[in-house]
Design brief:
The structure holds three protein chains of three kinds. Chain A has 13 helices and no strands. By secondary structure, chain A is mainly α. Chain A has a single domain, classed as MetI-like (MetI-like fold), CATH 1.10.3720. The radius of gyration of chain A is 23 Å and the shape is globular. By secondary structure, chain B is α+β, with helices and mostly antiparallel strands. Chain B is about 25% helix and about 35% strand. In chain B, the strands form four sheets. In chain B, strands 6-7-8-3-9-10 form a six-stranded mixed sheet, with helices on both faces. In chain B, strand 11 and strand 12 form a beta hairpin. The chains are: A mainly alpha, B alpha+beta, C mainly alpha. Chains in contact: A-B, A-C, B-C.
Amino acid sequence: MNTENVSNAKTQKLTSHKNGDGIVGIKSAKWLSLPYAVWMIGFIIIPLIVIVYYGLTTVDNRFTLDNISAISSPINLKALLMALEQSLISTIICLLLAYPLAMILSKSRMRSSSFIVMIIILPMWMNFLLRTIAWQNLLERSGIINTVLKFFGLPPMNIINTPKAIILGMVYNFLPFMVLPIYNVLIKIDKDIIDAARDLGANSVQTFLKIILPLSLPGVISGITMVFVPALTTFVISNILGGSKIVLIGNVIEQQFRMGNWHVGSGLSLVLMIFILISMAILSKYDKEGEGSGLW
Amino acid sequence: MTDNKLINLVNITKSYGDNVVLDDLNLYIRENEFVTLLGPSGCGKTTTLRIIGGFETPDKGQVIFEGKDITKTAPNERQVNTVFQKYALFNHLTVAENIAFGLKIKKKSKEYIKDKIKYALKLVNLDGFENRMPDSLSGGQQQRIAIARAIVNEPKVLLLDEPLGALDLKLRQDMQYELIRLKNELGITFVYVTHDQEEALTMSDTIVVMNQGYIQQIGTPEDIYNEPKNAFVADFIGDSNIISSIMVEDKLVNILGANFPCVDTGFGHNKPVDVVIRPEDVNLVKPEEGIIKGVVTSLLFKGVHYEMEVNANGYDWLVHSTSLFPVGTEVGIQVDPFNIQIMNKPESEDEEAVELEI
Amino acid sequence: MVKKFFERFYVALILIFLYAPIAILIILSFNGSKSRAKWGGFTLKWYRELFKNESIMNALYTTLIIAVLSALIATIIGTAAAIAINSMKKTPRTIMIAITNIPMLNADIVTGISLMLLFVALRYTLGFSSVLISHITFNIPYVILSVLPKLKQLNPHTYEAALDLGASPAYAFFKVILPDIFPGVLTGFFLSFTMSLDDFVITHFTKGPEIHTLSTKIYTEVRKGIKPEIYALSTLMFITVLLLLIIINRKNAEKKAPVSRV
């Protein structure tokens, strides 16, 4: 008998039983959300309305769609497509790297899960700009990776200031956001479920395809969103690792704001938000709990 | 029941770190038998079941199934199926898909699977539940689906790990009858794990009482109840009076200073023994008619009987009786000779492993 | 065995990938040469210079103050909100959680721009307080999402039990509820602190010209070359956190009794 499983079952039962009950007895509990509600309206909802307003008006406050259609200019469109392509590729690479890692980590149950979460998020304590800058050192023509490659007699790799370097930077920066949600879903899968599949005749490949993979889907979806959105909208990684030649949609928007074209910048941001909303809609479709498979 | 040994566990030892869960366990299970592994938590019963199921590999010893060594065979290649403690249903699949899981892997035809699902759901009294999701069902229903999912694979042995543990009393009792019916209809071997002695007594052909990794006693429910081999078994199976006594000679035992006639022989002269007397076997009579005298110190109404405590010769006797003796009544205690069960004292503090044939 | 080896090898490769840049930065902090492309011998010079560099120390101070304050305020507002959300009926609960997810799922650049536009529209001067407000805004969701699972695990009747035993509502909350959910509250606080410390994009848009956090200071130096003192500072910060986490982990490991599995 696995004591851990037993206690899991207890908590599970408790959750399903009390979903929405809250702490019985705190009558005024709802009022505790008042400060947060005010804060949300003031600093989440209203700012979004403001950005919509700016996006749909001209400098002299007249309604226009020009800021939105600015996306169709060749430069902007190219930046958007480039960003979509790069973020899709890095999301896929992150998924391919993260899933096996999460599987291995979730199997090594002797280590406490907080320890594993720790080693994955620890790099975040080094400033993310600095970590990205450090990749310049690693990737440069006479950088560390090429020195190592040369030592082994291998051809040098010249990817700094190319789209490949940006993809690498994205994968590097966002990999933890793919690993953690998948890991969190995987460790929650009851070991009995896997035993049951084996018991019913499934070999390990069948158990993975029919049980583990479908059950981990909410984590995968969550991870995809958490990688795809920041990758799609970044301007820092492309700035540092792409040189000045490669422009992503994030860079375009940042430039517009730097040059004071707030209305165009807002319009382009709205276009960006459409893509984010699409991915959010996909997420909410798979994440029934609405809160179960978040990052932490 | 035939005499064929279907499963034979030989010298099984299993430990987790320093914790020895099973120590040189030997046990065989016959074809078409309902065997219950009974014991407190931590006695090794679930580990034994998991070793049969293939989820654990013993450190030492062999698992023989139909004469073949399957100690290292993977669970998916064994002809046994398990009903897990918390059902372990696949919540992302419908009831029908859950039941079909094993059959699809065996690449059975669509019609065969469909028929089997229908048959299994009928068997567990859940016709028409094919398209429900498991988490929309009650605990009892989930339990039935778990059983249906296991039996469609036509296993030779069904392993059940405290399957009724999470159900409430009424449902548990209903499911006990249900399981006995299922076993008779299917004609297969059931290995059942529980810590509930009543469940074990109700359903089993054979009960294996376990404690601290050792088998304490193997026998029919009647044997186990009426003739416990040691104080642990006596105490674990039902309420009982276990009194340290002295065997004076054959057929005479000195309990708390008074000589009681009994039917046991062969314990020697003036040997210390443990005596077990079930509470319903203690007869309360008029003070002068009893072998010893005592006073009723507590009284509880239990529905079918009264439960009383009688202090006599320095021991609080637990007594079940249909007649009522108010607190303070002086009573005599008398026990029919064949209701006195004599047991040897354990030789050490640890309960000894008892090697027994069924 | 072979499988085990491949698994270890794979984890090791990923860890090298994650930690290689950090190793580079630590090495650079001891580099005698000012250029990051050249090794100029081992030195501790930058660590000494660091404490004399007023603009870096100012940025550090601003960063830390904002991180602590925003994490603290977010923890208070977020914990209260989590308790409230936990006691809500399904529909308001879903709405609250959906709104909570907005800043987590929305792009930093959009959050940053929208807050900046709000401040500008209100003619609120961009500076320390606008950055603080922005950081609180994106930190609250992390607190809520850390505390909610702990609340779900809580026995719903412990609070009533405390009241039944004569505790005042406040006493019951601080003595019964809070200790149970405290690990979640603490996680929320540290996550917020980390997020605030690591944030660049939102700070970039909401900070105005007057102040600098470490992130924005580094960003201005990307083109002209990072000052080696910055490497020294991040090394110090990283090592501090590493040591702290090791100590916490040790303590937790001691507390946990050996796991019995029977």
